């Protein structure tokens, strides 16, 4: 049984890898979700898990899980299951977690403060070193322990402190100005909550635009479809 | 020229439609983004737009745009371009916008307040009628005009006020309790910001889980990949 599994594992490994031993883009896309679940398991003290259990937990077929994870070599002997810590570490490494990225949050309103309150950054090895705002009432204070500076200092700060990630929780109208200052100061990636699609001329800077409204719309569409189904029953 | 275009339009229409004149799932998935762009154009007072201009704006090929939108009949005569208002209305209808859905936001912390401050809901025809929290200091106040009630009243309120959508901006630990109360009170869809995957036994209730961390991770991965590319140059 073990040898068949081994052969199966090797076959799947070949299938899911691309040239130069790179993990395929399709697998990469699914990894953040595995990372999230494995992180939760680790925090619960669960150190190993079978593909069947992980399958039930994540609502993904066991065969998909094997295909996605076996190429990391995280599968132990038959009957042992996956080593959660090892897999979590491997996926973290692959995804660029714990690269020591440093981030700033621009815009210290409700959304900026909500982002300051989460554990999202620390869990991915990202240090949030400062927040920036234009409001004199909050400049000089700390929000969840993060110091708030004037947006006038944004460029020089990012340059001096080697900031890699800029989070934009500013109004739409301010987004391009803030983005340009950060890009000129060497920031490598922008996480954009300004509710507009930020397009930069500089192809070296990565932008992740968050569009919560699209998700809300998906929800409405599904509710509508479900109601219509029910009406037709 | 016009007749060729018409034939082309009809052909594409057939291709992108499924049985019973339904728009295909692939097109549906792309519609929220069209809806967002068309809404922005309308607010700027732009009433018609060519597929070429929309293509540049949205960074999608003109042929993809024609394929996605021609089945709505929103394309006018050759050289006229799309009727923005008509298309926006058609897509809104299809997506379940303006169905008159009523929503509550549970959790009036930073994230809940940020959600109270956006125009996201109103733009999709959703009325936010109330917020709920456990903090006695904010119960009885209004946040951006929305009254805040005690979470003890959540169930009876949802039932009495025919609430369709529940937004969860509560801590992870409270998510299931809050969800159950709302589902029992007839809420049809949950928009979950509690940073965990909410799974309900009731297949009739739609859940949209928001995982901002997955997007942050994608950003890290792209920065890392880009840096490695640069190192190899």
Task: Describe this entry's structure for a reader.
2 copies of one chain form a homodimer. Chain A is an alpha/beta fold and 233 residues long. The first copy, chain A, is built from 10 helices and 9 strands. The first copy, chain A, has 2 domains: 93 residues, Arc Repressor Mutant, subunit A, CATH 1.10.10; 113 residues, Rossmann fold, CATH 3.40.50.720. In chain A, strand 5 and strand 6 form a beta hairpin. In chain A, helix 3 crosses helix 4. The N terminus of chain A is likely disordered. At the A-B interface, helix 2, helix 6, helix 7 and helix 10 of A face helix 2, helix 6, helix 7 and helix 10 of B.
Q: Please outline the major beta sheet of chain A.
A: 7 strands, mixed
**How would you name the oligomeric state of the polypeptide chains in this document?**
homodimer
The ordered string of helix (H) and strand (E) elements of chain A is HHEHHEHEHHEEEHEHEEH
Biggest sheet strand order of chain A reads: 5-6-4-3-7-8-9
| CATH class descriptor name of the largest domain in chain A | Alpha Beta
Using the 3D structure, state the CATH architecture of the largest domain in chain A. 3-Layer(aba) Sandwich
Tally of DSSP helical segments of chain A? 10
Domain module tally of chain A: 2
Question: Mean pLDDT across all residues of chain A, rounded?
Answer: 85
Structural class of chain A: alpha/beta
């Amino acid at each position: 049984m073990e040898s068949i599994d081994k052969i199966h594992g090797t076959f799947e490994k070949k299938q899911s890898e691309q040239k130069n031993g790179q993990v395929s883009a399709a697998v990469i896309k699914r990894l953040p979700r595995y990372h999230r679940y494995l992180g939760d398991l680790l925090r619960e003290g669960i150190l190993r898990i079978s593909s069947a259990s992980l399958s039930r937990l994540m609502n993904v077929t066991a065969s998909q899980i094997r295909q996605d994870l076996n190429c990391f070599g995280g599968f132990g002997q038959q009957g042992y299951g996956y080593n959660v810590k090892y897999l979590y570490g491997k996926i973290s490494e692959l995804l660029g977690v714990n690269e020591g990225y440093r981030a700033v949050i621009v815009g210290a309103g409700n959304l900026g403060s909500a982002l300051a309150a989460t554990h999202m950054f620390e869990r991915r090895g990202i240090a949030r070193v400062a927040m920036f705002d234009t409001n004199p009432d909050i400049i000089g204070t700390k929000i969840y322990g993060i110091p708030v500076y004037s947006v006038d200092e944004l460029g020089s700060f990012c340059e001096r402190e080697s900031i890699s990630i800029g989070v934009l929780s500013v109004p739409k109208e301010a987004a391009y100005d803030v983005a340009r200052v950060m890009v000129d100061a060497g920031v490598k990636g922008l996480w954009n909550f300004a509710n507009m699609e930020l397009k930069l001329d500089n192809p070296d800077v990565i932008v992740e635009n968050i569009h919560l409204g699209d998700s809300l719309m998906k929800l409405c569409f599904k509710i509508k479809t479900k109601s219509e189904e029910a009406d037709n029953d």
